[in-house]
């Protein structure tokens, strides 16, 4: 299967990966022929693209970092946690139970990732923007765990950062809905209210969830910036906890690649360029270095254009070689050609060939 932007999917294309809706319900199953009406509906849901299977990609299997079952279950858990916190329930037993469920989700995520070898973030995430916050929390968690792996975190420490990342935005439930959903630019007064959410989240999680300080500090500091230009305390460099520095990178990256009601998401390579450009200013250079090792610039199944005029499908990525994947060429100078494979990492005859950009095909 391969990833195709939604506006490029043709009537009758065969869906290669099941698409889920807001509540974890199946919208379209793997193998469905995508009618024009289905495509239109996906567009209205804010879905930027889908995986299809065709003769070019029929043999290409794309492994998810997490199983669909765990993704759906975790998103529903995050949604429940946010809803309960917004109600400010006085039932301590219910809150304690919710905290236990979220911690269990953090453990499950870590264990699924640890069960894989040399895992990297290698897929384009497909999500509806109505549930952006909850999928965003999950994606930031996966990214944070991958960075933690690159830093040789123990399982215990990976669970702690996963727990923090899952709930890093829970303080947003205390922000008025009209500010959260405002499509235009916030006023200075509104922005000051938004800037309180890391503090509100920290206090809530420490008091109601009994979250450890190391995890809660990651929530508190995920909007701090390496040069001191962030909030809520304008901390800089090593004064920001490592969890805070990791979640900061992962939070910005996933926000950039996500489609919202008011803008389209960026391609992975565009978001990565922003993160790399912010190294040493917005973000800890060491964290950025580890992040680049664990997140594919050109996810498997996407189409790319090369400096020699070839358009190719990404078949495989290699940790530490973000710009040198294995490819299947299928066009040359905008003309179809007999497909052939190219390994930019290992084939030294291709040293002068580079990927220019991602293309929509």
Description:
- The longest helix has 23 residues, at 92-114.
- α4 (132-150) runs antiparallel to α5.
- By secondary structure, this protein is of the alpha+beta class.
- It has twelve helices and eleven strands.
- The protein is 42% helix and 14% strand.
- The chain has a five-stranded antiparallel sheet with strand order 10-9-8-7-11, with no helix packed on it. It has a four-stranded antiparallel sheet with strand order 1-6-2-5. The protein has a two-stranded antiparallel ribbon with strand order 3-4.
- The radius of gyration is 21 Å and the shape is globular.
List the helices and strands and how they pair.
Blueprint: E1 2-5, E2 13-15, E3 19-20, E4 26-28, E5 33-34, H1 36-44, E6 49-53, H2 68-87, H3 92-114, H4 132-150, H5 155-166, H6 177-180, H7 188-194, H8 197-209, H9 213-220, H10 242-257, H11 268-277, H12 285-294, E7 303-306, E8 310-316, E9 326-332, E10 335-343, E11 355-359
Antiparallel strand pairs: 1-6, 2-5, 2-6, 3-4, 7-8, 7-11, 8-9, 9-10
What structural keywords apply?
single chain, 361 residues, alpha+beta, five-stranded antiparallel sheet, globular
What's the N-to-C terminus distance? 13 Å
Which regions are unreliable across 5 or more consecutive residues at pLDDT < 50?
none
Tell me the Rg in angstroms.
21 Å
Number of distinct beta strands: 11
> What string, H for helix and E for strand, traces the elements in order?
EEEEEHEHHHHHHHHHHHEEEEE
Characterize the main sheet.
5 strands, antiparallel
Tally of separate helices: 12
User: Averaging pLDDT over every residue, what do you get?
Assistant: 91
Structural class of the helix and strand makeup?
A: alpha+beta
Kindly state the percentage of residues in helix.
40-55%
How much β-strand is present in the residues? 5-15%
Large-scale geometry: globular
Order of neighbouring strands in the sheet with most strands: 10-9-8-7-11
């Amino acid at each position: 299967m391969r990833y195709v932007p939604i506006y490029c999917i043709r009537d009758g294309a065969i869906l290669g990966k099941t698409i889920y809706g807001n509540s974890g319900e199946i919208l379209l199953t793997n193998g469905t022929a995508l009618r024009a009406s289905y495509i239109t509906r996906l567009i209205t849901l804010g879905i930027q693209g889908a995986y299809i299977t065709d003769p070019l990609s029929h043999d290409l299997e794309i492994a998810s970092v997490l199983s669909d079952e765990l993704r759906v279950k975790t998103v529903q858990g995050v949604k429940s946690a946010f809803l309960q916190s917004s109600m400010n329930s006085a039932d301590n037993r219910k809150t304690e139970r919710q905290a236990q469920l979220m911690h269990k989700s953090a453990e499950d995520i870590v264990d699924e990732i640890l069960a894989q070898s040399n895992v990297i973030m290698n897929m384009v995430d497909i999500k509806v923007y109505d549930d952006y916050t909850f999928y965003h929390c999950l994606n930031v968690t996966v990214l944070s765990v991958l960075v933690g792996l690159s830093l040789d975190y123990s399982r215990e420490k990976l669970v702690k950062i996963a727990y923090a990342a899952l709930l890093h935005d829970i303080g947003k439930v205390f922000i008025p809905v009209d500010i959260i959903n405002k499509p235009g630019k916030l006023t200075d007064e509104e922005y000051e209210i938004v800037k309180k959410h890391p503090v509100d989240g920290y206090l809530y999680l420490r008091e109601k969830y009994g979250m450890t300080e190391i995890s809660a500090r990651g929530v508190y500091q995920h909007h701090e910036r390496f040069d001191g230009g962030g909030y809520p305390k304008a901390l800089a460099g090593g004064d920001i906890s490592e969890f805070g520095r990791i979640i900061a990178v992962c939070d910005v990256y996933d926000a950039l690649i996500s489609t919202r009601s008011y803008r389209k998401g960026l391609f992975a390579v565009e978001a990565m360029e922003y993160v790399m450009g912010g190294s040493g200013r917005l973000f800890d250079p060491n964290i950025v270095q580890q992040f680049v090792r664990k997140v594919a610039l050109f996810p498997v199944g996407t189409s790319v254009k090369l400096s020699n005029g070839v358009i190719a499908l990404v078949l495989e990525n290699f940790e530490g070689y973000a710009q040198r994947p294995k490819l299947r060429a299928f066009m040359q100078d905008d003309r179809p050609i007999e497909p052939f494979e190219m390994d930019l990492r290992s084939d030294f005859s291709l040293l002068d060939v580079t990927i220019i950009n991602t293309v929509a095909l």
